Automatic annotation (TrEMBL):
This is Copper(I)-binding protein. SUPFAM superfamilies: DR1885-like metal-binding protein. It comes from Simplicispira metamorpha. Gene3D superfamilies: PCu(A)C copper chaperone (2.60.40.1890). PANTHER family: BLR7088 PROTEIN (PTHR36302), COPPER CHAPERONE PCU(A)C (PTHR36302:SF1). Keywords: Signal. Residues 1-23 form the signal peptide. InterPro entries: LpqE-like, Lxx211020-like, PCuAC_sf.
Amino acid sequence: MTLQCLIAAVFFAVAGWAGGVAAQVPLTTAATIAQNTTSIAVAIDGAWARASVAGQKATGAFMRITARQSLRLVGTDSPAAGVTELHEMKMEGDVMKMRAVPALALPAGQTVELKPGGYHVMLMDLKAPLTPGSSVPLTLVFQDAQGFEFRQQVQVPVATRAVPAAHAPAHQH
Ligand SMILES: [Cu+2]
């Protein structure tokens, strides 16, 4: 297949997909979906990944996510890690256990916090130690109520602890 032919095929696939979406959902929703690709629908703040040392295989990334419309976080990916998963830490009896979860619900307008001891993005099979002061790209995959998926990339600062939030809503008086 020539490159030109490949581009044409991709364009056709995208055009066909866009037509399908427009046919299934009201026009206003289709417009919102179109905007999603430019990262408007989801606000992410306070993101940080815990620094790791040489030989350490895994670490966690944390952030606050606020979706304008009801969405689910259904996937994560980072070039810094061989495997990237969404995890949850939970007490089972008196033991803190960590497990992979397939998706995280993001109710419209509510801030969902990924934090140590709770939900987090697990970066496993690290390709190099995460050094404080550097940052790692992280791709989040969201799915809306219609099953439409879109991706948002975040540049996550590496730190040894949570970045103090200058605008944390919990501390306004
Ligand atoms: Cu984990």
